Amino acid sequence: MQPDALARTYHCQYCGDVQQVGVHADQIAEGMALDLSNVDKFLAQLANTLSQGFAEFSHIEAQNVGGVQVPVSIEVRLEPDVFTAVRAGNRAQCFHKKVVRGVALRTTEMPIDQWVEKLLDGLASHANESARAAWVLGKLSGGK
After folding, report:
1. Measured distance CA(64)–CA(47) in Å, rounded
2. Longest dimension (CA), the chain
3. Spatial separation of the C-alpha atoms in residues 143 and 6, rounded to whole Å
4. Which residues pair with 85 in a beta bridge?
5. Residue (of 85, 77, 72) closest to 115 by Cα position
6. Residue 27 to residue 138: CA distance in whole angstroms
7. What is the rounded CA–CA span in Å between residue 118 and residue 13?
8. DSSP labels, 115-140
9. DSSP single-letter state for residue 8
10. Do residues 120 and 113 lie in contact, with contact meaning Cβ atoms separated by under 8 Å?
11. What is the DSSP-derived secondary structure letter of residue 57?
């Protein structure tokens, strides 16, 4: 089996079989390179990355500040998990929600670093189930 350019899938030259290689949350974190110390940069980087590759799973609200669109709320739906980050003054409030059949069973506010780790785990899990998501994460992780 021969790896593709991103080393995400392997192709067999004899039978044409294709095998996808798993993605780990650490790989996604490196690709996103989020700045957790600055709420404006954090929300902007997260919104930019998600809008490029996970627009159908993301809802981003922004406000016009001085002629620039600034993200104030980001929601990522990776059923059964829903991740929300909301600008609250000079910090981000981050929530994780478990949803079953459209009903929120539990909502937990989390520190930003734990929230990002949980979000990245969810994205990695989703990528390991979806070839398209894996391709997007390959792009976000520095692949060509």
Report:
1. 15
2. 58
3. 6
4. 74, 94
5. 85
6. 9
7. 37
8. HHHHHHHHHHHHHHH-HHHHHHHHHH
9. S
10. no
11. G
Confidence label for 41 from pLDDT (cuts 50, 70 and 90): confident
Tokens, residue 59:
């809802």
CB contact at 8 A, 28 and 54: no
111 prior amide bond cis, ω within 30: no
Instruction: Compare 86 and 31 and report the one with higher pLDDT.
Output: 86
Contact present, 50 and 43 (Cβ < 8 Å)? no
Beta carbons within 8 Å of 20's beta carbon, 6+ residues apart: 8, 9, 128, 131, 134
Query: What letter represents residue 75's amino acid?
Result: E
Write the pLDDT tens digit of every residue in 67-77: 988 999 999 99
Residue 144 · residue 5 · CB < 8 Å = yes
